[in-house]
Request: fold
Amino acid sequence: MTELEINLLEEIEKLQRTAEEAKVYESIKKILIAYENEVIKPLVNLVISQQSSIFIKENIFNLLKEISSGVLMKHILPLIKNNNSFIRNKVIEIVEFMEKEPVEKLMRLLDDPDKNVRKHALDILYSTLSAEAISGLRKGLRDENINNVITAVEYIGLRKDKGSVKDIINIFEETTNVMLKCACLEALGNIGDTAIFNFISRHFEDLKSQNKFVVFSYIKLLGKIGEKSNLNDLIFLFEHYGEIALKELLTATITLCQRHNLIEVPEQIIIILEKLTDKNINQMYKYEIINFLSKYSPVKAKEIALKYLMTNDEMLIMSALEILSVNGEMNDIKLLEELKMRNNLSENIKEEIDFTIEEIKKINEKFRW
Reply:
């Protein structure tokens, strides 16, 4: 350690023993102001020193976050290669506060022989939210390490970079790696360019021959950029993947119908969803199904609502009450009054029952006139 670093460490440790953490931070800040750029390298060295406690490292990093300096970037970026995950994560935090300045240096790290360094560079480029960082993420698509390519694809999808669509389609068509194919499909869905759907859908004309994980990602894509006609594909997928991809199928069906503002859906979709409400599936899925059916098949939705009222699940009872408050009839009131007499109901449910009864009365009073 240099004489300056030793003096700094001694000063900081003395403060640590005698002062509150806030005072230590302020003291380090005064040192930094006094020495300006001269002290940045010693402070960076202190955070990787075995002699520095976590307390000292944390305070130094917190202060370095406030600095926007080429000198800081020169000394902080090499710490991406550090074996200590605490230090690597702190470096990422610091760079998140930067914008254009570190991009050029990070771009050079994408040529580093160490695949982990290139991965960390991609992480930081994504986190900077800088427009210039997109070119670095695109460069990651050509990385020799497939995990880094997957990372670049995912980040480009999250940044919704339409300029990378063609490259991602090419990668999807050329790779045999299942996880990379999945990443490509999900990135294309996030980017949301509906114009490219036909280029992708031709690879799924025979859904039975596809890897199931790739199919899961394709289901998500259908919801985000699929056509109305793809509801027929979803019928097939419900029949063959309904037990293992139910969440993805429900989300895709609901999203596709909402995107296209559909007034009606194929009867087969209604039948499939109605049958699911009798199965032992997650209650949240049952809630989503009844809400979906309330728009496309109110009669079926009410039938299911009356079944839900007989359960002990308050979430399902609440969803049933929501349906009945819109299309309930006067003869449903007696059932609701009997339901309210059950001992195991919460006060919230009882209040909702009262509200539903009043709504039913209002609706039917309006129709009488």
User: Anything to note?
Assistant: The radius of gyration is 29 Å. The longest helix spans residues 347-368.
